[in-house]
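Continuing the series of single-chain predictions for the mutant panel. This is the parent chain; the variants come on the following pages.
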Amino acid sequence: IEVTYALINKHNADLRCRHFSFILDRNRIVSIGMNNSKTHPMNLKYNYINKVNEKISEIVGTHSELNAVIRFGEEDCSNLTLINTRINRNNVLDNSAPCNGCMDMITQLNFKNVYYSNIRGQFDKLHLTNS
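Parent structure:
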């Protein structure tokens, strides 16, 4: 959480929310990602859909989870942990559960553990089928 708040000034404040993803190898942060309004070609590999189930992979911005994976540069994350945080417009830790497209990526890359901040300012563990 401290690292999340320290990164806020480096993030685009024009976005509705500021999402951060941390990839950990044991207790060491090996990659940090932030959400971005720009698209990325890797979006096409995953199933990003909108609220009416239309595919939006080609137009959606780069989510923090994907940004962290791109920066890390690995395709096998089976021994790694992903932690998501979100700071809302009131500067409060908020829900950062992965969306459908990011869940698709998390599953394909086989993350060992995934944690995300919730609306109570605490963390929940995502129950993955591979764990």
